[in-house]
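[Automated response] Your request has been received and processed.

Submitted sequence:
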Amino acid sequence: KRKSTNKVSNIKNDNFKEGKDARKSSENDHFNYLLSELQNLIGLKSVKEEVSALISFVQAQKKRKSLGLKSENISNHFLFLGSPGTGKTEVARLIGKIFKSLGILKKGHFVETDRSQLVGGYIGQTAQKTLDVCNKALDGVLFIDEAYSLNSGDSNIDFGSEAIATLLKFMEDK
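Generated structure:
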């Protein structure tokens, strides 16, 4: 007969976390995972620094609020600029997940759209299409790929300016 070389360790109650402690631990693990995802992106040093500063600010404001001190809100509107393939979409996805993890966003889901889903072909259609997309993204992240294409410069023949006006009004009201 062969002797087993496997060792069995004693399982103790303190190996398990219950209730709020388990949830908080799991949430912290998820938050740290999201941060590592961001840090593992190649390059983007200034983006990583900006996100870290933003996270620190949010955490400080939450702490101030919990102590009954005055706290400031942040603007949840960001602009991601860069050449194709530089990670704008991936960073925006991570921001949504990080903001959900921090409690800034209720859902943190990601809605990607472009001009074709915002601009209509006739008067009155653009505002409704744009509002539909905005409402779908509410409590999450709305990412407008190639948003610059909404501004063609000639508002007489193009409804992109109506989409921009609708987006700005929606952001202002929410």
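Summary generated for your ticket: Helices lie at 19-39, 45-66, 88-102, 115-118, 125-137, 160-173. The longest strand covers residues 110-113.
If you did not submit this request, please reply to this message.
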